[in-house]
Amino acid sequence: MEKIIILKYGELSTKKDNINYFIKTLKQNIGKVIEDVDFQIYYDFGRMYIYVKEEDIDYCLDRLKNVFGILEIIVGYKSNDLDIENIKNNVLDLVKAKEFNTFKVKTKRSNKNYPINSMEVSRLIGGYLLKNIKNITVDVHNPQLLIEIEIRNNEVLFYFNGIKGLGGYPVGTLGKGLLMLSGGIDSPVAGFLTIKRGVKLEAIYFESPPHTSDFAKEKVIKLCKILGQYNANIKLHIINFTEIQETILKNIPHEYLITIMRRMMYRISAIIAHNNKCNILVNGESIGQVASQTLTSMRVINEVVKIPVIRPVACFDKLEIINIAKKIGTYDISTLPYEDCCTIFVPDHPVINPSLKMATEYENHISYEELIHKAIKNHEVININIKEENKYQDLL
Q: pTM above the 0.85 mark?
């Protein structure tokens, strides 16, 4: 028998006319993350099969855990012998080394010309195991060991309980977005959830030196490196926001500082998104969490852009967001004590229900279009290729 890796698609199987596009993209994404080893990939609409050398299997499993579009990852075994007696012996050989008290045999027979139907194959193998292994019983509802068998045209596959994949859609199948990435907890989680839906991300970060430090910038770069493990690579746009922020501070009533600052960030992000063919903006806003995230504030701030704004954590509470951040490995970095430009110059009493009329009137006090043009023209771009970075940790 030969060891192989079997992947189950999950949500991809709900696609109809364009399922082939989703599966081909998944195959391409997998090829990129395991390109360091020799491999072959074959697929149908129900499974994907990866053939690698046995010594490379653990390496591949480690990489596949971070690939969206995979429901389950299984190490399986392939035999070209379809004789029922050999199938029974192969299953017995495979399960002898496993510790279990209850089991179930589940057979799938895609080869309809095979003379024994699926239920009968399962019954024959189950009886053979009961006869040859002591102290085990069948449990069809909650078995400790699920033995799955696929009888195909020229081969038989055997596999057991698998590793849970990330699910979602393959990255790149649903276009591209621009993540408004701060150094906080929420925006990296929003980025992760967006990538899970098949959206490839670029990121934008607003710095305000000397009010923000290089450590804050490095924190954001580290967060990008973690997101890049799901995204393959990530382009980070860094905007120097100092002149805009200081101009706002000098000319705008303090209770409206955050509102006007966020409106400027949205304008800049929309232009960067347009220039880089991103279809949406993504951010980590959560309803009611801070003054700029009340519904009224969101409406007034959102008014300056036409591009859709996606808020994946809008209806999550803080503990839910923190739990995801810990699972994906961003929490410890996000909680490093380096302020970003969203947290400096925060007034004691920011307006929580800003007026669109007043926000527009206050903005007329500053020549913001010229400042925005200057900030975009001089912005820095960092291309983070995860292949060139040390892996931070096993995620999920």
A: yes
